Amino acid sequence: MRTAGRLAASVLEMIGEHVEPGVTTEDLDRICHDFIVNQLDCVPAPLNYTFGRDQPPFPKSICTSVNHVVCHGIPSPKKVLKRGDVMNLDVTVIKDGFHGDTSKMFFVGKPSVLAKRLVDITQECLYEGIRQIRPGAHVGDIGHAIQSLAHANRFSVVREFGGHGIGRRFHDEPQILHYGQPGNGARLEPGMTFTIEPMINAGRRHVKLLPDQWTVVTKDHKLSAQWEHTLLVTEDGAEVLTRRAEEPF
Ligand code: MF3
Ligand code: CO
Ligand code: CO
To answer: What is the pLDDT of residues 168-223, one digit of tens each?
Structure first.
């Protein structure tokens, strides 16, 4: 899991310089796909993935969610990035059967004051969630910390999607909700691995699914942001398996 996490993080470190006005999200998908397969010798987990139901398999290797897209945006040659856009790029790699799952927000040119504030607070929500992790803590502690910070800033928390246990499976138990009450839900134990990946909206929390059966957007078309790490519960806290060099911890 440490190896998978480190390799997933390296994709986000690699792609930054390619995110600029005029590139398409499909260009970014191709660059990431080739890097994951050829440089990292990994499998891109999203490609052909399905949550089941009557959902078509995901057709690309990464998710690119721009502006009011909440998550699971499908890279497309029609989606040309322009100045002022904000984008979440979500990477999941499989190395020797183990998954590493992480995402970050990118600015295309200079963001609006609101977009910058939403993106920064959402990253702080992830970090506040991570600070709750220790043996004996509950998943509700994580959700409550995230919800409290988001609401204090008059933003809303998406409820339809959460973090997840991860390991040999991409999406496993427990579910990590980004809202909740302290002391509620599953208890954390050393050795558990899961993601925290808050989706925070500038407007209302409600979302809708586009007809492609993947792309999730805000109902009010206001901005949404998301950051994600894969975490390991240690004897005295958390290890961030998908940490990037730019991060403070
Ligand atoms: N990486 C996403 C997550 O954080 C899941 C994407 S599923 C896909 O859980 F099929 F859209 F890739
Ligand atoms: Co995830
Ligand atoms: Co992810």
So the answer is: 999 999 999 999 999 999 999 999 999 999 999 999 999 999 999 999 999 999 99
Q: Which of 65, 101, 102, 104 to mutate to test the pocket of ligand 1 (most atoms within 8 A of CB)?
A: 101
Which distant-in-sequence residues (6+ apart) come within 8 Å of 154 by Cβ? none
The model's pTM:
0.98
Task: Give the type of residue at 4.
Answer: A
User: How does DSSP classify residue 167?
Assistant: S
> Residue 172's pLDDT is what?
98
228-237 confidence digits (pLDDT tens): 999 999 999 9
Q: Which residues line ligand 1 at a C-beta cut-off of 6 Å?
A: 46, 49, 58, 63, 72, 90, 92, 101, 195, 197, 228
Q: What tokens appear for 59 in the block? A: 């057709």
Please report the DSSP string for 192-246 in residue order. -EEEE--EEESS-S-EEE-TTSS-EEETT---EEE-BEEEEE-SSSEEETT--TT
Residue with tokens 């690699």: 14
Collect all residues with Cβ–Cβ distance below 8 Å to 161 and sequence separation of at least 6: 70, 71, 197, 199, 216
- Of the listed ranges 2-16, 17-31, 52-66, 120-134, the least confidently predicted one is 52-66
Ligand 1 nearest-atom number relative to CA 197: 4
Q: How far is the CA of 203 from the centre of ligand 2 (A)?
A: 23
Q: Which two tokens stand for residue 237?
A: 């806290």
CB 165 within 8 A of CB 193: yes
